[in-house]
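Because showing beats explaining, we let one protein speak, sequence and backbone structure tokens together, and leave readers to judge.
___
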Amino acid sequence: MKTYFISEIGTERPTFLHYQHKNLESSSFTANASHVQLGHRRSGWQRLIKQVLLTKPGGSDELKEYEEKGTISPATRKVMVNILVADMVQSEGRIPQRLTKEKYALRIVTRFPRSKIHMGRQDILLPPRHLPPPGPCKCAKSAIILKNSLFDAEEVEQRRHKEFQQHKARTESVLSTRLYAPSNSPLQYPIQGFKVRPMTSTFIPGLALHARQRSNYTVFLEVSKGVLKTVIPAGGAQVHGNGESRLMMESSSLETLNELLAYVSYTSTVYHIHTGDLASFQFEDHEGVFPITIKQPQPPVLYDMGTDINSQVTITTKTFLRYRELNRLLKSIRQFYKDIEVIIADDSFVTKKITGNHTKHFIMPPGKGWFAGRNLAASQVTTKYFLWVDDDFQFTKWTNIEEMVKIMEANPELDVLGGKVKRSQFDFSLRYEEGDEMEGGCLNRTFKSRFQSLPGYPQCSVVSGVVNFFLARTDAAKRVRFDPQLKRIGHSEFFIDGLGSLMVATCGHVSIGHQRATNRKDTQKYRWFRHSGRRNQHSKLRHLFFKNNLKCLN
């Protein structure tokens, strides 16, 4: 196949564009868009290519073929290149500048990232540096479409979208950019784990050049959120841009150049507690890009475990109108754990005094709700762990808190460990698809669906959520917190908010009892508030639609 290169544009040769990366270390072909820039310039280039093709005869056919097939044929590519070359010559004349030629070539690479490049018998696939944004997710047939619970859906959706963009700005950085290691590259650089403190000079480890004999060696380093420095070179070497964002080093000696590279340091110029930068390392036609994590070190929060269960765990509960059940719970706790601290959050309309050693009773404003009470109770915990129980539970000989602590200590990555309530574990898994930004994501909850067993504990499994009997790591639960907007209906929502940040497991060999239901007058009043009907359910769905950016929930 006869191929012409972009450097030939403006000569008497035919103008068929081919992306070529010249590898001076090997005769093999390397597909590497070495000068592709990131961020808004990349998307700007894509828009320019699309705009040119849409305004020229036949250009829309190239776009349509690529969208349908994920690639374009050699014949289509030739037509496309001729359209773009004509546009370039029209804007700059018959002999365009070299920089303009490179930009047009790279615009094609970024606009058609999956396009195959034919080189003799080889097909080279150029991978995109950024994943395409996710498309709409598919809701299960039985899923609740949350938007249907809104009477002002369009207005709420617009506010939600604006808030979601701010969320992305806070949580995303260049560190999520996909990077590809170039093949047959003479460049050596760190590919993972290079961290720096904000505005603190740090040597970049592992920088080196491994190239064959040349009369001269020139390398470039470039960053966007900091400056680069190296030592003042001895004779036979030159450095330009010391203390700037782009650093050039040149020497006729490879050994001298590598000495300069060994002393290159990076300093971020803007204070940020957790962000990142991408460093570009270039030699001739080769480029490597590596991430720099900029992070303020965080002092650890450690808990003194003491010598017994009383200094390791606090029992927490929330009560509302059920003092008889609460007193039974407390009596059962003291039967097995005489000195363990119990914290009670109480939002009853008419309160009764709860007394006893190692018992703290916090009175809330009436009817503040289920999760507000959980927050209050958890906020007063000073131990490493807290055990959550409902006020109508009952401790038994199988309620072994020491065993739960043992499992958590053996698996320090765990944040929450649940058990059984009587014979029910009530565990579930959550599957979440991000979906379209405007429509929102899809969340599917499946009961009794477990990911895998917990190493060393075959009776325990990793899940997404558990029953209301669980041991939680205090600092992890506080970071997620219990949403106080959920007053009467809520449990799974804590684990939805913690999805991706809480590691959760359930064990079948630790359990707690449940008191028998009664039909007393105060119990009936509790049920009326607890099961308050469609209005609260509607309010919860509207809340989930906005807060968790959800399209549907199953």
Summary: Confidence is low (pLDDT under 50) at residues 1-43, 116-126. The longest helix spans residues 74-92. The two ends are 55 Å apart (CA to CA). Residues 89 and 96 are 7 Å apart (CA to CA).
